[in-house]
Amino acid sequence: MARLTLGDRLNTLVNDENLDSGSRKFAGNLLTYYLRKKSLTRGRRDWVDKLELRAREQAKEAAEFAAAGPVEIPAEFVTIRERILSTEGEGSWSLGFVDSLIGQAKRGRALSEKQRSAWNNIKEQYTGSWSEEYRTTYQEQAKQVAAFYRAAKLPYWESMIDGILSSEEYVPRRQQFLKMFSNRYAQRVLEQTGIDPAFTVRQNVQLRSNATTRSKYRVHMGKKAFVLAVGDVVEAVKGGRGYTVLFAGDPRPVVIQERYLMKVR
Known about the structure:
Helix content is 58%, strand content 11%. It folds into 4 domains: 6-68, no CATH class; 75-126, no CATH class; 128-193, no CATH class; 204-263. The protein has a 5-stranded antiparallel beta sheet. It is of the alpha+beta class. The radius of gyration is 27 Å and the shape is elongated.
């Protein structure tokens, strides 16, 4: 009989349904490391034994509860899982967490205080109170803030921004969303978005004459231009709205913020 390698053992753990999704994911990370390095460090090697022990213990629990008869899964777990799947899809942290709670319930194990707190946060997000509040109070402004973060290529809240911009059904986690929405950059973007554009399409404009503008747009100083398009706020500052303008004698339009432009004298 061929000897089982660490890779074989880890592959078994990755596919062991007795383990929760977090443990299987961790086993997958160990397997990736093993395949790349052809070995494991002592600390990682010890975790293989720990995961196997955990799998055996949970398999034993599952067998005991199966012998005792079927265990009813709380209906709210199933309902919230379906809502998460429809809005966030496979692979989200929330879905994995709820799956682990369902697996735990099947084994008859109660939630810990920490799990209960996390579950209450998820349930609040996917039940009527926060979902309704988000859609009626925040959703339209959330799109404006998310569009700014994406356009500015800021490395924050990327998965939440993707959800806000890609699906009308998506509802972000309350605490995480309010943290993004309430910060000073988001509020400045909303403030500037609410102000009417200073210029209109086809209006003649020119650059302001100050040191900052000259340093940025030296080649365009003194030239007249006209506005091709009025854009969104591109920087969280006063006058941060972007305009696509075409300068006289130049073949290509450029995007310039409102604070650097003025009407032609």
